[in-house]
Design a protein that fits this description.
Helix content: 40-55%
Radius of gyration: 25 Å
Distance between the termini: 30 Å
Strand content: 5-15%
Structural class: alpha/beta
Shape: elongated
């Protein structure tokens, strides 16, 4: 039997955590009873610097069921991707495979059974993919489709309608650990590992309680993070746009000469003002995009740790490790 770890990043999840723990405990016991996973399998909750009672609840869960629930507390809020990465790295050396899922119970935990079957059939990575988006609003459905199209156009390899609900084998986790960048975008990084993969389709449910941690502002920032972390195509687009404008300037020159020769030089005021504003805006946009990349280079060269672990809760003291990145 394989040892399976569930990795659940948490940020201010005190409203939903008791129900999440209850359902995950029931699912793990069900899988153990069916001998699909080993008794050493467990759940790791990663507290991403929560400001509510999330960590206290994780402590209580560990005290009550130390052989089922582990806890990792980051020293500060590092963001969902870093918290998820921290949990996966904690599980890497203890399990045969790890399954990551959100704490809000929107990911269908019944799909875990099919993920394990795909893993046993030889897949190192199993993606949980939404089968439909009928429950989403028109705005969210449209922006989601647009997001995947833009990411694909920008050269970012992603599985459409997949978030961070996935199974990764130990070999895949070791491959992920080789990615040293500070700016994490796991949805684009995991496909780059390249091992055999499969997909499991499921219907995403409603959030059990609490508020979404990804409003529109954060979703836009997340998309920008993904594009600039994994693709240089925006810079190439600026180059192509610059070449296009340079070629267009010849037509403006011919137009200006014709206007001058026909005695209509004053009439060019509108086109002149428009050109100044258009070129000025384009230059600022280009500087901003290039600046985004330079900023990421700046952060990468500092080689700061992705996270620092303040506290660990694990049933076996012999397996405790020194804090790491």
């Amino acid at each position: 039997m394989n040892t399976i770890y569930l990795v659940v990043p948490c940020y201010n999840e005190e409203e939903v955590l008791p129900e999440t723990a209850k359902r995950l405990h029931r699912k793990m016991k069900q899988l153990q009873k069916a001998e699909k996973i080993s008794p050493d399998s467990r759940v790791i909750f990663v507290d991403d610097g929560s400001k509510d009672r999330t960590w206290r609840l994780i402590e209580k869960l560990h005290e009550k069921m130390p052989q089922m629930f582990d806890g990792v507390r980051l020293s500060r809020n590092e963001g969902h991707q870093n918290a998820l990465f921290a949990g996966l790295m904690e599980a890497k050396d203890r399990c045969d495979a790890a399954i990551s899922l959100d704490a809000d119970l929107q990911d269908d935990i019944e799909a875990i059974d099919r993920m394990i079957v795909k893993f046993e059939e030889g897949s190192d990575i199993v993606y949980g993919v939404r089968s439909q988006r009928d429950t989403d609003t028109f705005f969210k459905r449209t922006t989601a489709r647009g997001f995947y199209k833009v990411m694909k156009h920008m050269g970012v390899e992603m599985v459409e309608d997949h978030a961070d609900f996935r199974l990764m084998s130990r070999r895949a986790l070791e491959g992920l650990a080789e990615f040293r960048e500070v700016n994490l975008f796991l949805r684009g990084m995991v496909p780059m590992i390249g091992y055999r993969s499969a997909q499991v389709f499921y219907e995403r449910g409603e959030r059990f309680a609490g508020e979404s941690k990804y409003p529109l502002r954060k979703m836009l920032a997340f998309a920008a993070q993904g594009i600039t972390s994994l693709s240089v195509k925006p810079i190439r687009l600026i180059t192509s746009l610059g070449i296009g404008i340079f070629l267009a300037s010849f037509f403006i020159l011919i137009y200006s000469l014709i206007r001058h020769l026909t005695g209509h030089t004053v009439a060019g005021w509108t086109s002149t003002v428009f050109s100044i504003w258009a070129i000025g805006g384009l230059q600022l946009l280009a500087i901003g995009i290039i600046g985004e990349y330079i900023g990421k280079i700046y952060l990468e060269t500092k080689a700061r740790p992705k996270y620092l672990i303040e506290e660990r809760l694990h049933a076996d003291p012999a397996q405790e490790q020194a804090p790491k990145e």
